[in-house]
């Protein structure tokens, strides 16, 4: 018999793309009362994808068991983020009621946008690819619609990805990313 884990995390960015991790038993889920936001921080020049409270919003993602219930190891991977309890806000298909957390960049790390932060196109590619695979074209569009902070410049690093978990996209996946970005007030610059 397989033991049921009672410690799960909700992934809403690169963790939705199963090619970026080895977390087994991940399941589609929905986080209510939050939306995604690109967050420029004092920690690095590339903006983080985070979540912020928004009672009127819900976002799709994946939940996965914390390996060996070792929050410490996951906290290290998500070092810039705070772990926030979220079990009461997550809709999921599990037959039990696990402990669920979501990771969010704390406001204390915020940096002024004029500091020259950017978004990595290779990071956006990974996230959108995950949403396409898990939730289809509507899920990818929902990602764009429920994410703020697009006014930060996007660095087109596709030719030489700077995102450490970059993935290769098909031509169709690349077109979805490019079409989604074309609908937003995005300023693109070459790497």
Describe this structure as you would to a colleague.
This protein is of the alpha/beta class and 191 residues long. The protein has one domain: Hypothetical upf0131 protein ytfp, CATH 3.10.490. It is built from three helices and ten strands, in the order E-E-E-H-E-E-E-E-H-E-E-H-E. The protein has helices at 71-77, 121-145, 171-182, and strands at residues 7-11, 27-39, 48-65, 82-85, 90-91, 99-104, 118-120, 147-148, 153-156, 188-190. The strands form two sheets. Strands 1, 2, 3, 4, 5, 6 and 8 form a seven-stranded mixed β-sheet that branches. The longest helix has 25 residues, at 121-145. The radius of gyration is 16 Å and the shape is globular. The termini are far apart. The model has no long low-confidence stretch (mean pLDDT 91).
Primary descriptors:
single chain, 191 residues, alpha/beta, three-stranded parallel β-sheet, 3 helices
Which residues sit in consecutive blocks of at least 5 with pLDDT less than 50?
none
Write down how many β-strands occur, each being a DSSP E stretch of 2 or more residues. 10
Structural class: alpha/beta
Order of helices and strands: EEEHEEEEHEEHE
What is CATH's topology name?
Answer: Hypothetical upf0131 protein ytfp
Level-2 CATH architecture? Roll
Biggest beta-sheet profile? 7 strands, mixed
Number of domains: 1
User: Roughly how many Å apart are the termini?
Assistant: 51 Å
CATH homologous superfamily - what is it?
Gamma-glutamyl cyclotransferase-like
Number of helices: 3
Radius of gyration: 16 Å
Helical content (DSSP H or I, runs of 4+): 10-25%
């Amino acid at each position: 018999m397989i033991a049921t884990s009672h410690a799960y995390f909700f992934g809403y960015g690169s963790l939705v793309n199963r090619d970026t991790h080895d977390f087994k038993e991940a399941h589609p889920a929905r986080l209510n009362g939050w939306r995604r936001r690109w967050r420029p921080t004092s920690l690095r020049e590339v903006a983080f994808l985070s979540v912020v409270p928004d009672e009127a919003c819900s976002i799709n993602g994946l939940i996965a068991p914390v390996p060996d219930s070792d929050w410490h190891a996951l906290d290290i991977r998500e070092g810039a983020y705070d772990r926030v309890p979220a079990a009461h806000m997550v809709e999921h298909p599990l037959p039990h009621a696990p402990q669920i957390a979501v990771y969010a960049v704390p406001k204390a790390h915020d940096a002024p946008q004029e500091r020259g932060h950017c978004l990595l196109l290779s990071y956006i590619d990974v996230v959108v690819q995950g949403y396409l695979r898990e939730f289809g074209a509507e899920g990818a569009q929902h990602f764009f619609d429920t994410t703020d902070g697009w006014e930060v410049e996007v660095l087109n690093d596709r030719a030489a990805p700077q995102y450490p978990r970059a993935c290769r996209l098909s031509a169709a996946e690349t077109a979805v990313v490019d079409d989604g970005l074309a609908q937003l007030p995005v300023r693109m610059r070459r790497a």
